[in-house]
Amino acid sequence: MGRRPRLFVVSGPAGVGKGTLVARVRQKRPLLGLPVSATTRDPRPGEVNGVSYHFISDPKFDELVKRGEFLEWAQVHDHRYGTLKSEVDACLARGESVILEIDVQGGINVHNMYPDTVRIFIEPPSWDVLVDRLRNRGTESEESLAIRLRTAKSELALASTYDVRIVNDDLDAAVSELASTLERYESEEEGI
Ligand code: 5GP
What we know:
alpha/beta, Rossmann fold, four-stranded mixed β-sheet, 7 helices, globular, binds guanosine-5'-monophosphate
């Protein structure tokens, strides 16, 4: 049976390890597309413009919205984040499946536009583990931590609306589960 490139959305609360999971699956599957999002937030130490995100100004973001350049965009915490259509199209045109690592609102918007999207939710083993992971990441101020935890609560409440849920407890197990989920959906025949 052949494989077809699919559009996957991976969501989950900040600190759940989505980024690490997706990066590990990409190591197994170097040809998996990962479009770079645009954001109005400032880069964190070590983040590279055009690789981690396209870091852009508020006026530039407005301009791209007006020009219809985003597949979806959302206000997350206190900044805007968006997926550029051009980035996704370039991946699909190369025959690569695309993983969009985006927040819950963004996932819903993409799914409305492309009902064929497969939505995957990454869950923490428990609420306490999530709080610890976020705190230990050490990149957030107490205020920003509180905002992220509030957002996490409302995101976790929507987990049951996703096609697939993966608990990120043991990282290797979660990586295998995510990789086999992608393969399963890529092998599905059209229209199922
Ligand atoms: P961070 O600032 O920690 O890198 O990301 C904050 C949140 O923004 C995460 O939940 C992340 O998934 C989300 N995010 C990143 N890129 C996009 C995007 O292109 N669109 C949407 N809607 N959310 C995004």
